[in-house]
Amino acid sequence: VQLVESGGGSVQAGGSLRLSCGVSGYADRYAYMAWFRQAPGKEREGVASIGGYTNTRYSEAVKGRFTVSKDRASYTLYLQMDNLKPEDTAMYYCAAEPRLAWWQLLRASKYNYWGQGTQVTVSS
Questions:
Q1: Burial, 120: exposed, middle or buried (Cβ in 10 Å; 0-12, 13-18, 19+)?
Q2: Per-residue pLDDT reduced to its tens digit, 68-80
Q3: CA distance linking residue 113 with residue 57, whole number of Å
């Protein structure tokens, strides 16, 4: 499977961005997908995950502000980010995996397939 992120950019605090992750190569086999982010000097952290098309999970840092979804026709993964804060600044990555337990969904070490990332910068 190949994953390609897009949609990153620079916004002011309170603004919105929508990230996309295009999926190719047996996309239907990768039921579990997630968004991670990594700021300079910090570990990669799980932001949001989706199992199938409706089973979502979010980190406490973004709950209520970010929404993850997946298109049934194209398998494209989305992350709608609203009310962005400066602390959301990071490189954002999408990841995919065929099978995961619910407690693994936001653990970076459990994913083997990654995109190249897209930068999100939020200014105050």
A1: buried
A2: 999 999 999 999 9
A3: 19
